[in-house]
From TrEMBL:
This is UPF0173 metal-dependent hydrolase V6M85_10300. Belongs to the UPF0173 family. HAMAP family: UPF0173. InterPro entries: Metallo-B-lactamas, RibonucZ/Hydroxyglut_hydro, UPF0173, UPF0173_UPF0282_UlaG_hydrolase. Keywords: Hydrolase. Residues 8-191 form the Metallo-beta-lactamase domain. The keyword Hydrolase applies. One of its GO terms (molecular function) is hydrolase activity. It comes from the Archaea. It comes from Sulfolobus tengchongensis.
Amino acid sequence: MAQLRWLGHAATLITFGNKNVIIDPMIKDNPLSPVKLDFFRNNLDIIIVTHDHYDHLGDTIDLLKMNPKAKLFATYDLEAYLAETYKLPWENIIPANVGGFVEVDGIKLALTKAVHSSTHSDPTGAIVSSEGVTIYHAGDTGLFEDMKIIGEVFKPDYALLPIGGRFTMDPYQASIAVDYIKPRKGVIPIHYNTWDLIKVNVNDFVTLVKNKGYNPIVLQAGQTITL
């Protein structure tokens, strides 16, 4: 049974059976995180990084050291930079770029376009699919019309969208993104209210999404839902 646990900010843990996938794992510097880094020791199978800003790359390197069998999924150029800088073994790296699915241990992974910035390689979103459930984590992004293509190609059941404004979409823009993506079962707001710079009223997003006929799912940091 697939489960999703929001860890605050953009950090998201997805579980399929006995496989754990974490996306954008900022834990130590995440004021909302309900867990400490040691919670993940020998407890992760795949680490996905959408881009290299500190609040998304987060504790990736420490987590890879704590989970010697875990694999890193990110753009090839970011992977190559991290591998060279931190001496990561290539057998722990899943080479990829924006495109089609890569299957790892029964879990299908893909990277998508995102409109944002990063230092090494381009920013991305991520698709994670297994057990008949497909999740789209948009990473950090502004609104872009190609989200329609992401919705048409990957047909996500759930979408996690940043709504904090300033660095990403705000609640209004994210509600337009929901129309583009058309998540079939629910949309989860992320990347908001971590700090004052991205403080918004999440109820604005909820109202806009409900008015469009979609299902907003507002999670508290640490909350787990069954998908």
